[in-house]
Amino acid sequence: MNPIFSIGIQSLWDEVSHMPVGGVWWINTDRHEDAVSLLNQTLSAQHKEARVAVVCMGQDPKKIIKLNENQGPQKIDLFSMQENENSLYFMRRDLLCSIDPQNFLVVVLCSNNAWKNIPPEKFHDWLSKSCKWAKYHRCTLLILSPGNSTDVQTSRLLSEYGSLAGLASLRYQGDGQLFDIAFWANEKGVSARQQLLIKQNEAGWELVQEELANVQPRTDEKEVLSNIAFLEGAPPLSEHWSVFDTNDAVFNAARTAQAATVIFVMGQNSQIEQLARYIHTLRRQRGTALKIVVRESVPSLRATDERLLLSCGANLVISHSSALSRCLTLIESIQNQQFSRRVPEDLATLFSNTEPLKLKGYQKWDVFCDAVQKIVNNPLLPADGKGVMVALRPAPGLRVEQALTLCRPHRMGDIATIADKRLVIFLSFCRVNDLDIALNHIFPLPTGDIFSNRVIWFEDKQIAAELVDMQDVKPERWTKPLPITTEPGKIINATHDGRHWRRYPEPRRLSADTGEQSS
């Protein structure tokens, strides 16, 4: 009869603790000491005749394994491996040189963040081969992976359900641990999206008694977890509302939600990256029933920022101009919805897609054409929404090199070039109806005074067709910019207040040499 091994957490039901042979189970932990503790508890939970092997990465297993004499198997095969990538790749082969893994429980204790820098394709290949190895040798492989990037690691592993039989995380809660089960499959069936409170006592890890009856979390569709700033000073609207002082507190509360409404508030553009990480984590780990809303409290969201938040998994992004009553109506409209868009597992992919151009300001003619061509040909970007390209011809008496000195792009991705007596600008992710606003931000003087005419392209096929003509322009017709003789930003005595340019006088002190007198 094939043996069935168990996770070392007392009172945990079989559906989320059993690990039969032929599968790979993975548990992430926030802290290394928790992984060591879970390792010892799991070893102690096995019967005396169990065949067990432990592999420690970067540590001597004899120094970290501590078992009572009357607990655990009579014999444990101990192995250590170096703290590097190659050790992981050769681990399975090296084990076969020492043991026959049939009917073994093989526990691998990784070092901190051991998988962080391993490329996705190698990571996927390692899991796939480990799954085949466990099935072929009829053994159980348990990976304990500590590190400070548990959310990133879990999101990365969610798509590996074909190779993993179980995936869970042990999250440190101060006075206890949260055993967050993404999925767990064994001879008892399949369980998913379980979150169980674990306490540590003298006997080891144990499930909190209140959790024993809650095999599945109760429905929370009516619950609303909101940043207090969303209500604009109003009290919570019903007993279902829970308000928090910060977005961090909202995120931590939402980690246990299943179908609740989660409301974040964004007050400045610097919050975008952290907010995107929160939304991506919740959507990847808590599923499609969660309703995630972002409310802009002051004007700070660009079109690219809004697209990023929606791509990370937000159901709704509400503008600052919407009144509270309007916001509540919009939130009501998304109730009972299931999020249907695909969310990539790698957040870096989303960040790169919202800002694919790492250029700003003047570029040579060929560099400009190549950069715009890459954006137009990027299939991950929205059709006919990649940006606006505009060609500006200077007014009579003004050279194109002089007009370029007035072109001051502020956003990354806004680039310009000059040739054929015209200035060409590409504004990434700019809408055509916002072109005049964008140009007023870039030029300190009215564009009608600087340029005599302009031609605009905003559809993908229009931009692509114009790029073909631009790429035919010979280098001898490219125009060189004027040398910069003043400090950047001081070409013209003007400042931008966020909406308009404003000229200001520069004071000059007039002095006379009083040491000499005329005769």
Provide mean pLDDT, rounded.
85
Radius of gyration based on Cα positions: 31 Å
What topology, given as strand order, has the largest sheet? 5-4-6-7-3-8-9-10-11
Q: What share of residues is helical?
A: 25-40%
**Low-confidence spans:** 211-218, 486-491, 514-519
Number of helices: 15
Number of strands: 23
Structural class: alpha/beta
Q: What general outline do the C-alpha atoms trace?
A: elongated
Question: How far apart are the first and last residues' alpha carbons, in Å?
Answer: 122 Å
- Our estimate of the beta-strand percent is 25-35%
Taking the sheet with the most strands, its summary is: 9 strands, mixed
What does this structure look like?
With 519 residues, the chain is α/β, with parallel strands linked by helices. The chain has helices at residues 32-44, 61-64, 85-96, 120-137, 150-157, 247-254, 272-286, 303-312, 324-333, 347-354, 365-376, 400-405, 435-442, 447-450, 460-471; strands spanning 4-6, 18-20, 23-29, 51-57, 76-81, 104-109, 140-146, 166-172, 177-186, 189-201, 204-207, 224-227, 241-244, 261-266, 291-296, 316-318, 361-362, 387-394, 414-419, 422-428, 451-457, 494-496, 501-503. The strands form 5 sheets. It has a 9-stranded mixed beta sheet with strand order 5-4-6-7-3-8-9-10-11, sandwiched between helices. A 5-stranded parallel beta sheet has the order 13-12-14-15-16, with helices on both faces. It has a 5-stranded mixed beta sheet with strand order 17-19-20-18-21. Helix 7 (272-286) runs parallel beside helix 8 and helix 8 (303-312) packs antiparallel against helix 10 (347-354). The longest helix is centred in the N-terminal third of the chain and has 18 residues, at 120-137. The model is unreliable at 211-218, 486-491 and 514-519 (pLDDT under 50).
